[in-house]
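Cross-check.
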Amino acid sequence: MTTFVDAERAELGPVLDADTCIVGAGAAGITLAMDLAARKQHVLLVEAGAESIEGQTQNLYVGEQTGVPYYDLASCRLRYWGGSSNHWSGYCRANDPIDYQPRLQLGLPGWPVNGQELAPFIARATKTLEIDTDFFDPAAQLRRAGFDTSQLLEKQSTALVTKNFQLARNIRFGPRFRPDIAANPYIRPVENLNVVKLVLDQHGRRVVAAEARTLGGKTVRIVARRFVLAAHAIENARLLLESDDRSPGGIGNGADQVGRNFMEHPQFQASRMIPSDRFPALYDFQYLGNFRLNANLSISEKLMRERGILSYYCRFMPVYAEEEVSRAVSRLPNRLFQPASQGLFRDVVTALGDPRGAFAKYVVRDMHRYVQPLYYMLEHRTDQAPNPDSRVTLADKRDKLGQRLVRLHWDFTDLDVKTFATGQDTVAHELSALGMGRFQLEPITMDLLRDRVKGHYHHMGTTRMSDDPAQGVVDRNQKVHGVDNLWVAGSSVFPSGGYSGPTMMIVAMTHRLADHLATQSAAA
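Predicted model, tokenized:
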């Protein structure tokens, strides 16, 4: 059985040798290590964290931010075994065909690979994530859950399409795969070791070593035949930018592309729908939640192309009590354990003013079939336009390991505004025409997006894939342009993000990368 090496405690020596060194043990790094080991290829799997989260290690993710307000960078990604899969909710869906297409409005190429080429790897990802493939066919999945699929809205409107997700259950890659890694003689796992820089040869064509450090002060040099960065979309860019000794501006950054085109999955709630009795129950978010699947409304690819917008969907979030009542009910459990106060009395009176809404606040998960919501809020989510100005750069301040902190700038484009606005208007127009509800719409503007949009901790695009080195960082096989033995894994290579969570496509793309690396080894 393999022993997990704690770099902080073990005697490692000044140099670690490896055939393939993978930096990062999240969904991408673990998937790649397991795939290569299955082909009897030796892997050094280096993780900055330990088996569980630790404060000092997590604080190495502290960074600076500008642009649209975003989550704290030390909390929206996780630095221990399993990486950000440790706060993944499990939603799975593959890209739609339109997601691979060029962004002509922005002068950017699309994915250099297409859905047909990725189909076998997406199928492998469903096995890795232990889900079935019914989510490719919403009608099949909904029938299996006992729904009347005659209510699917695309049967009544050519502009609307139902999209749904499958929820993976065994989703924490660290606990799930750690025993398999420990039992695998081809994987050497090292934890609490932080790769801080890559070292190129004198010609700048090969990575000859990686410099790594522990928080306790140890320094280790990793020498390998090939390196794969699987450290997270923000951290992959940081490592390339930080490695600027022989390559001014950082490795792979000859065209100033490293760190650019940072993308998220922007989402926010805007506008209300008061449903009629014709609105199908299968689109009620909470109703479907009990069946561990989720039906959402998108608009047809034909309409997206005609309108020149990105991928969009919305879901309908039921509201059973006005905001004042909802807040009062939410406070009551804490009030009960506090000394008697006017606050407790006031919240009880507020809740009793709407007993139906107060009751629904807590029993909706079981009573949703019988409690009619006051209205639905439309929750919108889109693909985000690749924006060169949304980017990861390095700050002047350094962390405890001597690395420069990351600085994230996040913002939107006019295309993002157009996508949200067109999506909302299309859904409202079509459902109103079908007599399914009345809408109170909010105008969607850039100011509204910047004020209200939230992300999903879905970080993508900072080392985008492109056949043209002038428009990306890695090629179609995820190898860094101009460097012979360095690859990048994970969502940082995505040229666009679609509207689906990235984990399933991360796993699919990593299976593809593993096949490429295995074929390369066989040829060598």
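The two ends are 29 Å apart (CA to CA). The longest helix spans residues 503-523. Passed to J.P. for a second look.
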